[in-house]
Amino acid sequence: MTSSPRAAQTSVLAVLAVLAASCASTGPAPRAGAAAGSSVCDSPVVIGHRGAPRNAPENTMASFEAALGEGADWLETDVQTTRDGVPVLMHDPTVDRTTDGRGAVADLTAAQVAALRVTVGPGPAEPVPTLEQLLDRLSGSSATLLMEIKWQRPEDVARIARIAASSSAHVVLYSFSAEHLRQAHAVAPALPVVLIQSGAIADSPGDLKLSGIALAADLASAARIAAERRAGREVYVWTLDDEESWQLMSARGADGLITDTPGPARRWVDTNCHTEGRTGPLAHGRSPNDQDQH
Predict the structure, then answer these.
(1) Using an 8 Å Cβ cutoff, are 170 and 289 in contact?
(2) 158, 234, 259, 271: least surrounded by Cβ within 10 Å?
(3) How does residue 233 score in pLDDT terms, banded at 50, 70 and 90?
(4) Domain ranges of the chain
């Protein structure tokens, strides 16, 4: 029995519909964490860890300039204090690993530290900056400084916080030590405070109001990030240096990617994430110094 022209047309349309569905199912899958046709993530801030230490010696003005030039939203640094009370930018308690000198920062004068050169990392050796040098550079800019207060005397913690608060740079204080953050908050209550936690060191904030928390990557599960954000805290994850980790932590909802490679991270975020950014306690794009006092 032969079919009618209308029946034949219906059969052709049915076959075409099946073929279209088959093509759609075998096409590229949506990116992890993203619905089809949407970005993979909200827009996390790119935070240059000690600047851009794969471009220039870490924690130097050259490294910070490289990070800013590559599009970092924030800079991250570490603050130690010299014997005569001058805050300088140095990760380690001694100058041995990073410079051409030897000794504990706390045993050296500011003049002695200024005579040293940072030799670890690519490029020419560079001077050790003071905190005030970096704050002056960032004054009036849109960049935020995520400033780690290293383990030191209470009076040094207070001095660091006062210097940061008196500048016109956007500063967020962070530390592994909840007690240091309390001391800093007491003298600079307008500055947001962020607690750093790792598997080895995880102080409890107690009743200290945190604006955020900085987690080692192995602590930054989706459940942990979600819990911190429900508590009103932004989450910054360290140290993330490849696309796999940027995608994983962005999909989990991290607010900031702390990285040694801010240039590639910037390009990845720009390609894969929403451009309008997220809102939160520090409201990306707004000055932390403009937030309510905690």
Answers:
(1) yes
(2) 271
(3) very high
(4) 40-93+130-290
Using an 8 Å Cβ cutoff, are 167 and 136 in contact?
A: yes
Q: What does the radius of gyration of the chain's CA atoms come to, in whole angstroms?
A: 24
Positive or negative, the Cα torsion across 175, 181, 183, 186? positive
Which residue carries 């962070």 as its tokens?
Answer: 174
CA distance 259 to 239: 5
Sequence-distant (6+) residues with CB within 8 A of 85 are 156, 159
Contact 74, 277 (CB under 8 A): no
Q: What CATH class is the domain 40-93+130-290?
A: alpha beta
The model's pTM: 0.83
SS3 assignment, position 136: helix
Task: Look up residue 123 and give its two tokens.
Answer: 């490029």
Phi and psi based region of residue 103 (left: phi greater than 0; alpha: psi -120 to 50; beta: remaining) = left
pLDDT value, residue 42: 84
Q: Are 56 and 121 in contact (CB under 8 A)?
A: yes
60 cis-preceded (ω within 30 degrees of 0): no
Match 């309008």 to its residue by tokens.
Answer: 276
* 3-state percent helix, strand, coil for the chain, nearest multiple of 5: 35, 20, 45
Q: What is the mean pLDDT of the segment spanning 89-109?
A: 98
- Of 21, 41, 37, 18, nearest in space to 29 by CA: 37
